[in-house]
């Protein structure tokens, strides 16, 4: 993690994929309305477009606290 992004992007994206039933980064990119290489860039830079993530969470009823702060282990058994 860096000082600009206090969350682990890889974990957030993994939990977001589970919550949205997206099996691949390409599917996640389509849902977020970004190019597939954007997901790769976010992972490399440990950065996110927080507005895009928050917007899709709002649209799909995803709890932001669960996404950003909890470890998300419980999501794998409920949404896989």
Quantity of strands, as a count: 0
Categorize the overall geometry.
globular
Provide mean pLDDT, rounded: 85
Assembly of the depicted chains? single chain
Report the β-strand fraction as a percent range: under 5%
DSSP summary: helix tally: 6
Helices and strands, in order, run as HHHHHH
The profile of the biggest β sheet is:
none
How large is the radius of gyration? 12 Å
Organism: Flavobacterium noncentrifugens
GO molecular function: DNA binding
Protein name: Bacteriophage CI repressor helix-turn-helix domain-containing protein
Domain HTH cro/C1-type: 27-67
Write the topology of this structure.
Layout: H1 9-20, H2 25-32, H3 36-45, H4 50-60, H5 64-68, H6 73-79
Helix pairs in contact: 1-2, 2-3
GO biological process, one term: negative regulation of DNA-templated transcription
InterPro entries: Cro/C1-type_HTH (IPR001387), Lambda_DNA-bd_dom_sf (IPR010982), Phage_CI_N (IPR010744)
Domain HTH cro/C1-type: 27-67
Can you walk me through this structure?
The chain is 66% helix and 0% strand. The chain is an all-alpha fold and 80 residues long. It has one domain (9-74). Helix 1 crosses helix 2. The chain is globular and about 25 Å long. Mean pLDDT is 85; it is low at 74-80. InterPro entries: Cro/C1-type_HTH (IPR001387), Lambda_DNA-bd_dom_sf (IPR010982), Phage_CI_N (IPR010744). Residues 27-67 form the HTH cro/C1-type domain. This is Bacteriophage CI repressor helix-turn-helix domain-containing protein.
